[in-house]
Design a protein that fits this description.
- The structure is a homodimer.
- In chain A, α12 crosses α16 and α16 (about 335-370) crosses α17.
- In chain A, β5 (about 80), α5 and β6 form a beta-alpha-beta unit.
- Chain A contains 17 helices and nine strands.
- By secondary structure, chain A is α/β, with parallel strands linked by helices.
- The first copy, chain A, has helices spanning about 20-30, 35-45, 50-55, 65-70, 90-105, 115-120, 130-145, 160-175, 180-185, 195-205, 220-230, 275-285, 290-300, 305-315, 320-330, 335-370, 375-380; strands at about 10, 15, 30-35, 60, 80, 110-115, 155, 215-220, 240-245.
- The interface of A and B includes residues 161, 176, 178, 192 and 199 of A.
């Protein structure tokens, strides 16, 4: 999940530069904002509310209304979200999967999760296929820990499952020419021919069932779904629906860049308590004032304060509590150090629980990759 | 095997236009002619001579000398030749396989034969994958009939075997960028991204073993092997060797175009005796004179006479007999009708025997695709 923020911004599936104007992105990509009516309809169908929708972390969509209509009329949609296994996962990566597992529970949906080892290799984000596959294994444990149903979730590495995907992939690929791929993804003469083919592979899981696919993803992935929606019906499948999230800002600032190669910008799922504390205390960009006196007088700026944003986007899920924090911080009653302390406790509590679930996942993983109900069906059936 | 012949010529793996100047093609592609010393060395290693080499039907090569050195020093090379299953096979297609099976017997070599159903689908040479797969099955019976060893030959459809090929394919693909593919294959903005990826797939079987691959093929396929030779060593494999043939001319003339959609230009392996006779009598381009009197006086031109060329390139394998025919025909002693009669008998005799072998192939096919020694090893091992 790339997320650089400066004044001019550019968002592609492989690069995000500048400070993202999310409202502009909706216009640029031609997606729809999630209005209040649609939110309420989603909560009603789900049987409960969800903070990430309430707060606009997921803020844009394509055809979410049609997916809900399907559900309301007894036709289940299925979920698809993936991971490029280029390295260890950080908090920005995992919150997507927690939200997807919530959708799965509430809508009794099958979930398909490719680990795109081919993509990270072909795009030079991994030094070798072996390394990508090692990370695919490590990442899959974190993904399972996010709470998926072992009988209705299929996790697979592209390189291992491509044998069954290839026929569908070339049916998709035949409908995408170089000019289109160039326009949408910025491909050029230097792009290798494996990476040129990859968009077809990313589209395929959205065609794993003949019912509607709903894709929860960060907004930068939308170009793939634009292609999917251009060609799906001509192949006999529904257009995919999508639910787009904003990016969790980098620790070092909402105008800074979270980078896998700059450890200080992110908190990894295997960072220990001391590391979490140190990264947040030393590195988290604060919206507080330069001195305690000034802070008491002027208050903190929650819009740019990364600890506040992280609490708001994931770690403090109580609306009452987050509003209390917002008020106390912006009024100057709460100092930056206190706010950071709240986040440190929340992150460490989350990571402790996540890691316990990850340990349990080791014994469950093969259900997701082969022996569970959905996985064994996928491993033994032809895709058409 | 495309083979149009006009004054200016152009040869790519998917299109051959103009009258091919084979000597120029050697210079253009940067290959080597097969000199007399190399011919004799090949015959000595093979333990017998072969008319197609003696007569220059296979006339160009890359590293054939190195393949022979490998063999002489006890390191076996392996053979790779394929078929795009776009329709029924004609005589021009099958003679390649007869030659390859001769190489297999004489050099005790494994042979890998992909049926590139993906390629014919992606390049619009087949209306659907299902149709391509039907032809892949039909073609595989004709290929088996050419005399391959069921325990040392692996025949597979790309779409069925791609699961095991994909990792190698993306290692290859990562080394070929769009600019290179454009320069070599003439790809452009309208080329679909599946076809853009295809050259990587065509390279993969040349990496099925870590020993040297020798590829007998029509000269138009050489661009693929140029790419193979550019990248193989960086992936830890030897550069492929190749043995290039001329094209069997179209029935309608060495300057005409053999086209799968124009039945008169080709003789198919399932054409019956009457059809063969009719096509040759009515349609075979003759180098004879306009009247019997003129022919007796001036003689026939064997250079442009398609019946003579077909006899020379495949159907009359006795050097004494073909020289006798050449002399009698060019001196005017033999008339065009007589020459055509000789070819008709030869073709029908060949097709009768070929079809008997094809019927036997039905019971043997599964050895080539799964249960034979080499096929079962390939179906159960990872490619690295």
């Amino acid at each position: 999940m790339p997320d650089t923020h400066n004044s001019d911004f550019n968002v592609t599936p492989w690069e995000v530069t500048g400070q993202v104007d999310y409202a502009k992105l909706i216009k640029k990509f031609g997606t729809q904002p999630i209005g209040d009516d649609l939110k309420q309809r989603l909560f009603k169908d789900a049987g409960e509310s969800h903070f990430a929708i309430r707060r606009g972390v997921y803020y844009s969509h394509r055809d979410l209304d049609l997916a809900l209509t399907d559900f309301e009329e007894g036709r289940r949609f299925f979920l698809y979200t993936g991971r490029g296994p280029s390295g260890p996962m950080h908090l920005g990566h995992i919150i997507q999967f927690y939200f997807t597992s919530w959708l799965q529970r509430r809508f009794k949906a099958n979930v398909y999760i490719p680990l795109t080892d081919d993509e990270v290799y072909l795009s030079e984000r991994s030094p070798s296929l072996d390394v990508a596959q090692k990370w695919a294994f490590e990442n899959s444990l974190d993904i399972v820990a996010a709470g998926f149903d072992p009988d209705h979730t299929f996790i697979f590495k592209d390189t291992e499952y491509l044998g069954r995907m290839y026929k569908l992939a070339i049916r998709v690929a035949k409908k995408i020419n170089f000019s289109t791929a160039k326009a949408i993804f910025g491909f050029g003469g230097e792009t290798n021919i494996g990476f040129l083919f990859y968009p077809a592979i990313q589209v395929v899981p959205s065609l794993f069932e003949h019912s509607r696919c709903l894709i929860p993803c960060a907004i930068d992935q939308d170009p793939f779904w634009r292609i999917q929606r251009d060609i799906a019906e001509s192949l006999g499948f529904p257009k995919a629906a999508a639910l787009h999230s904003k990016f969790l800002p980098a620790l070092t600032g909402i105008s800074g860049k979270m980078s896998a190669s700059i450890a200080e910008t992110a908190i990894y799922l295997n960072d220990d308590e001391r590391t979490v504390r140190s990264k947040i205390v030393k590195g988290a960009f604060s919206g507080g004032q330069a001195t305690v006196e000034e802070h008491r007088r002027l208050g903190g700026n929650t819009e740019v304060d990364v600890p506040f944003q992280w609490l708001y986007m994931f770690f403090e899920q109580s609306d009452d509590r987050i509003e209390q924090i917002r008020q106390e911080y912006s009024s100057g009653k709460m100092l930056s150090g206190e706010l950071k302390g709240i986040l440190i406790d929340k992150v460490n509590e989350f990571l402790k629980e996540h890691r316990a679930r990850r340990r349990r996942a080791e014994g469950e993983l093969e259900k997701f990759t082969g022996t569970g109900e959905l996985a064994s069906r996928m491993m033994n059936s032809d895709l058409t």
